[in-house]
Amino acid sequence: MMSNEVELAQQEVIDEFSFFEDWMDRYQYLIDLGRRLPDFPEELRTEENRIRGCQSQVWFVAEAKGDRLEFRAISDAAIVSGLIALLLRLYSGRRPQDILDTPPDFVKALQLESHLSPTRSNGLSSMLKAIRGFATEALQAA
Q: In total, how many domains does the chain have?
């Protein structure tokens, strides 16, 4: 079976993280990724766009562009911003079906759940759930 774009992006991320021997370096890399997130307009920082289940503030919006979904997001926490940067790289600009067809194997592959605090781990799950929710809605709308 042909890999879809999400799977390919996921493999790239896994390969990239494997360059770092220890977790301090991985954290630093995540923080650097988070610093490079594009600006997130103030008017989108609404209650409606806030993701529940994250200890830090996270705002997440999805927009359909043709047959693809574009995501924008921001957090007030450095590590969480890094996780958002990863998620945007994996899922933004992809087809909803590809998003739904691809399990988030990178979470296990990068051992995120064992290295993130439980609250950050929950936040990551909440963001993944939101992304899948947006993809499901987009398919139903189509």
A: 1
